[in-house]
Amino acid sequence: MWPDSLAVLGLGALGGSLAWQARQAGVARVIGYSATTADASQALRAGAISDRADTVARACRGAHLVVVTGGPAAVIRSLSELAPHLEPGAIVTDLAPLRRIVQETVRELGLSVRHAGSCPVVAAHGTGFHGAAPALFRGAMVYICPSSPDDSAARGVARFWSEVLEAQPVTVSAGTIDERTAWRVQLPALIAAAIAKAQVGSGSVTPGSGAGGRREEPTLPAELLLANRDEVLRALEGVGEHLAALQALIAGGDRAGLQALLDANAAAPGHGAR
User: Fold this and answer.
1) Distance CA 192, CA 66 (A)
2) pTM for the full model?
3) Closest to 158 (Cα-Cα) out of 120, 123, 132, 124
4) Which contiguous run of DSSP H or E holds residue 134?
5) pLDDT tens digits along 71-90
């Protein structure tokens, strides 16, 4: 099985699940590192890792594949720290939800031919290692983003997801991932925030109460919005044009035009899909 030595930097819900599943699949050595002591301790006790490292450098020692988890800023910091300590021939992947900002750092570090990004389409049920599960990625779609025209690293990463984690890797471009994230995750969150703000301003709800009572969804980090600024702005501009057209139809009492717009939306591919 490849790799026979795996390093996982970050042992929260995603990193912990990945390490745990790799361990159960038979990866001989899974070295875990986490800045959160509790996550590392819990992962070791659960058997999700075979070894615990106290630094990024020690985690990378002897590892044939290094997996970095966290948001873009955390991933960029870890990549900068691990770059001098990679074993010859080792490859790197990361699970950051945005790709182009990470690829810029990878290029600056000279790691492009040794790196490919991974974006698994999964939802962890909790944060920290408490949210980890040993089968989280089984059957999941995973987008693989090569960082170099030489796709050998991407092929190695895809092989790991397929053969070890039993996931379904699909190769896509970094731009595709960032655009998808802007439209499917970030734009809906921004619109929901705008609606909530408008409701408070109208007096229909009180601050902090929410439109429907207790808030269930976690807050979207501003870091991710700013890291994907261009795509988010394009999405906001696009939806703004359609909202203006919708407003004009309603203000003008154009029943036929309004119904045609609603019918077109209902017939659109993917309507109702998250």
Assistant:
1) 37
2) 0.82
3) 120
4) none
5) 999 999 999 999 999 999 99
